[in-house]
Structures are given as structure tokens and as C-alpha cells.
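We store chain and fold; example below:
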Amino acid sequence: MGKMKKKKKLVRMVLYIGLVLVLGMVIYQVRSAYLRAEAAKAAEAKKQAQEEARRKEEARKKKNEWVKKDGKSYYYGEDGKVVIGRYIQEKKIYYTDDTGAVVRTVDGEKPMVAITYDDGPSQFTDDFAQLFKKHDSAATFFEVGNRMNEFEEEAKTITEAYCELANHTYTHQNLTRVSVSGMHNQLNKCDRKLREFGEQAETILVRPPEGAVNETVKKNIHAPIILWSVDTLDWKSRNAESVYRKATTNIKDGDIILMHSLYESTLKASKRIVPELIDQGYQLVTVTDLAQFRGGLKNGEKYFDIKPVESEKEDQKSQDETTTTEEEKTTEEL
């Protein structure tokens, strides 16, 4: 009996020791895993701190500075971050993609014209937008609000191609034939629709259908009224050759060219017009960019063209001289 008790006691002791060893190993493994996890966290935190310090140092160095990466240009602003979108520096306007890489530049000191299209969007809108993107150029599309949903995918390509969306009323309504409240309804509904499709301008430009403007319209349109100096009459001729000639003959710096995005003949003409005007030395820009360094645009004012400021001064001087000459002639006759 004594031997049996000793044997049982020995077995219990061995089991106890084994259990203690197993628990010890488990505790060791858990503690080791915990320490490794904490060490990994600390290493990651240190890495992040170093990366943040590197970014801050990079930002400090690149503040208000151009940087070239993989053949693309980026501009770091006052806050040390890459500038994204449309921005102005000195006498130039820059457009970037979503990463901040510059995709198009407008030089405010070089000749430029604005090509504009009315009455869209249409099945041809994407083709127009891609044409301008291909040539590093832009146009302004005066769109009819209730056509936007019908040609939703086409409409999206306008701002994606860095072109400008503008207001041509919601239903192509002659604004001189509606009440003031009706006018506001037409313009506001169209503005809202244009913003849905990516237009971000603080004030969206307006072109009244048919170019119909009276004093009531001028007083109640709280945006610049954009008309035109070159009418291609594309809606009337539906002839690509005729449209091409009208849009490329005797063009002057600051002209605003009128076409319509509804017609295949206009698209065909535009494929010749765009490279031809570029070859003539013109930048093809949005109306907003055309006005940027030329005195800007005022709400309720009509614009047929937007000439360089110096040209406007010269025109005014010429008019003043003509007036003076006429007055002197009248005086001599008396």
C-alpha cells in the first residue's frame, strides 16, 4: 500500500510539472507574440513619423516651386501641396489632371480665340470634346438643360476634356418672350443641371437662345452674356466647307466663333477648323480663359468678342481721334 501511494504521488508530481511547463510555454509564446506586435507597431509608427517628416521637409523645399516628374510638370503651392485643377500664375492659366500633372497651358500674352457650340449635348458631343483634347485646346459648350439627361455620357466628356459648360436655358427658350420669373426658372434649372455634370465655375456664362437680349434680360441675367463676333451659319448651310471658310477667314485675336454641336457637318468642319486656327497662331480657349487677362467679365454685360486690353485702348483712341476730327471739321464749316 505504501508503494502504491508513493507511485500515485510521483505521477501527480510529474503531471503537475508537465502542466506547469506547458503553461509556461504558452505564456512565453503569448508574451513573445505581444512583444513582437508592439515592436511592429513601434516600427510602423517610427516609419510613419519619418515619412511625415520627409513630406514636410519636401513640402518646405517645394513651396511655390515647379517640379518635374516622369516628364510631367507639377506645381507646389504656398502650403507645399501639389496644386490640382485650374490655377493662374503670372500671365498663364494651367489645367491639371487629378494628380496635379499639368495637361494644358494658356499663355495670356499670346493671341487666342474662343470656339463656342450651342444647343447640345448631342450624339456628336464626345467627338467634339475629344477633338479639342487631342489638340491641347478647349471650347465652350452652351448647353440646353433638358438635353443633358438624354445625352448623359456625352455631356460628361466636356469637363473631362477640360472644356467649359455654359447656360443656353433649360428648354431653349427665347428669354425676351417670358416673364422675369420664367427667365430665372429657365436659367437656374439649367445651371443646376450643368453643375451636376461637372461645371465648377463660380458664375456660369449665359448665351440667350437666338442671341435675343433686351433691357429686361440684361437686368435679370446675373451672369455675363456671351454672344459672338463670327457666325458660321452652320445651322443654315449644313455644309462643312462653308462652315470651315467662315470660321477660318479674317479671324482676329479675341473673336468668339459660333457653331452648333448638333450637326455632323459641323463636326466635320471642326476637324479642319481646329488645326487651321492653331496653324494661324491662335490658342483655342474657353470664353472664361479668353477674358481672364482682358479685363474679365461683368454680369449683365453683352460680349461679342473679347479683345486684348491694349487693342481696346487703341480702338478707343482711334474712335476719340475720329470724333475730334469730325468736331474740328464741323467747327471749320461753321
Summary: Residues 2-62 form the longest helix (61 residues). The two ends are 156 Å apart (CA to CA). The chain has a mean pLDDT of 88.
